Amino acid sequence: MATKLTLRLDENIIEKAKNYAKGCGKSVSQIVSEYFAALEKGDSGFNGADVGPITKKLLGIMGKRKIDEAEYKRHLEEKYL
């Protein structure tokens, strides 16, 4: 059963998502649904090869990769200093 979900996103992200979905011949809802279904499969069933660049960035955010404290500190220094 399909249920409505409301997301609050920046206008630029929404426009990019709509353009990406249009280019794929899908709706934004289909793209989001496929993304969450892929996440459910876990690392073994989904490698991100069949998704677009925006989704690949999101996968990096939600990945299960362990980051040690030194690596995280280096990231913050590069980002903010």
Task: Describe how the helices and strands are arranged.
Elements: H1 11-24, H2 28-41, H3 53-62, H4 69-80
Protein described:
The protein has 81 residues and is mainly α. It has one domain. 62% of the residues lie in helices and 0% in strands. It is built from four helices and no strands. It is extended and about 45 Å long.
- Main beta sheet strand tally, sense and closure: none
Shape label: extended
Count structural domains. Answer: 1
Helix content: 55-70%
Taking all Cα atoms into account, the compactness measure Rg is 16 Å
Q: Classify the beta-strand content into a percent band.
A: under 5%
| Structure summary, number of beta strands | 0
The helix-and-strand class reads mainly alpha
Instruction: Write down the overall mean pLDDT.
Output: 78
The tally of helices reads 4
| Unreliable stretches | none
- The ordered string of helix (H) and strand (E) elements is HHHH
Amino- and carboxy-terminal Cα gap: 49 Å
